[in-house]
Design a protein that fits this description.
This protein has about 400 residues and is an alpha/beta fold. It is built from twelve helices and 17 strands. The strands form five sheets. The protein has a seven-stranded mixed beta sheet with strand order 4-12-11-10-9-5-6, with helices on both faces. A four-stranded antiparallel beta sheet has the order 13-14-17-16. A two-stranded antiparallel sheet has the order 1-2. It binds pyridoxal-5'-phosphate (PLP).
Length: about 400
């Protein structure tokens, strides 16, 4: 209902009503107020490549400060295309099949706005990144969750549940691998099962691959679903520099896919931001050419942090789940007597001087496992050690 606020007769539009402030804001504020070690939001404390930072500074001083081309700087689009070919054997034309965006966030929003009409359905695996539900809502579409099934200390695909979730209104499958918040990397067999359903039901796939370089477990490997038979033609790949280079404030992302799909995304994107980040784009073009050397070191750091935190959580009497990639480790907090992760996270700063995020914040399903909590590992070694010491003392 529209009501009077002050002298103006207004109220928030339905598409943003009740979006409210997120649990991230609450927990970040709690960390600030209590001085607790903040393992909540995935804001990296880790270094970035020194040459990348210098290249940005040089680009700014050299005057690369005006609008880039709407589709992104040519050098970056060429570097992205070369990266996809070198790493995955995926061939995209820099002109027409690659689009630079203001982070993966804008790419996701623009892609859903471009592909979904009001009333359409989008399928995502549950839990999922919190922007998906918001973006679906902005598009007037409905986000349908297909639960990832707890399987031992990890999560698995339920292909039958996915098949059952597809309706005549389903337009898009949104696939995030490596996955936030679980740290799951979908296996080749799981991807083959998903691809089969997408081909059968003519679904368009949007993939969120922002953690593509951060698979740190032996035996796990990132495979873009676009590499599978019949999938390139129906898939938009989204990735970003933020997580790969620890530059989350730069917001440079990109989309790769068949030209008509990319053109549709650009139709929405050009009126969201038009374009952004000229000096970042220019510097990232060079950094992406040698990303493999950089990422190997980052993976070592994240693996060490994962081990340090998982070990510490175990010794503190909690039960960490397996994480193979990305920025996060989850834990079952029931051994501390909590059935509710939200309450656990509200108590934790006081009890142990640590901030975490309840995983329910990422679930669409009201029957989600409420006892899961997510900790960030993209932090300095001493932050993780301090958190571990304090968790063990609070046991
Ligand atoms: C961080 C993150 C994003 C956002 O990426 P930006 O490039 O910072 O906009 C998108 N998807 C997932 C799964 C993420 O974790």
């Amino acid at each position: 209902m529209r009501g009077a606020v002050g002298s103006a007769n207004w109220s928030p539009a339905a598409r943003v009503r009740d979006m409210g402030t997120s649990i991230f804001t609450e927990m970040t504020e709690l960390a600030r107020r209590t001085g607790a070690v903040n393992l909540g939001q995935g804001v990296p404390e880790l270094d970035s490549p020194a040459t990348l930072l210098k290249d940005v500074a040089d680009a700014v001083l050299a005057g690369s400060n005006q609008y880039p081309p709407a589709v992104g700087c040519a050098a970056l689009r060429e570097a992205i295309a070369a990266h996809q070919l070198r790493r995955y054997g995926l061939d995209y034309r820099p002109a027409g099949e690659v689009l630079v965006t203001t982070g993966a966030t804008e790419a996701l929003a623009a892609a859903l706005l471009a592909l979904c009409d009001p009333g359409d359905e989008i399928i995502a695996f549950d839990p999922c990144y919190d922007a998906y539900a918001a973006d679906a809502r902005l598009a007037g579409a409905r986000l349908v969750g297909v639960p990832l099934v707890l399987d031992g200390d990890g999560f698995a695909l339920d292909a039958d549940a996915l098949r059952a979730a597809v309706t005549p209104r389903t337009r898009v499958l949104l696939l995030n691998s490596p996955h936030n918040p679980t740290g799951k990397v979908f296996t080749a067999d799981e991807l083959a099962a998903i691809a089969e359903i997408c081909r059968e039901r003519s679904l368009t796939v949007i993939t969120d691959e922002v953690y593509e370089h951060l698979v740190y477990s032996d035996g796990a490997r990132h495979l873009p679903i676009a590499t599978l038979p019949g999938m390139r033609e129906r898939t938009l790949i989204i990735s970003s520099a933020g997580k790969t280079f620890n530059v989350t404030g730069w917001k440079v992302g990109w989309v790769c896919g068949p030209a008509p799909l990319v053109a549709a995304v650009n139709s929405a994107k050009q009126f969201l931001t038009y374009a952004s980040g000229t000096p970042y784009q220019e510097a990232l073009a060079r950094a992406l050419d040698s990303v493999e050397e950089w990422a190997a070191g980052l993976r070592d750091t994240l693996r060490q942090n994962r081990d340090l935190l998982s070990d510490g959580l175990t010794r503190a009497g909690l039960r960490p789940l397996r994480a193979d990639a990305g920025y996060f480790v989850q834990a079952d907090v029931r051994p501390w007597g909590y059935s509710d992760g939200v309450q656990f996270c509200r108590d934790l700063p006081e009890r142990a001087g640590v901030v975490a995020i309840p995983t329910v914040a990422f679930y669409l399903d009201a029957d989600a496992p409420a006892w899961l909590v997510r900790f960030s590992i993209c932090k300095r070694d001493d932050s993780i050690r301090k958190a571990v010491d304090q968790l063990m003392a609070a046991r």
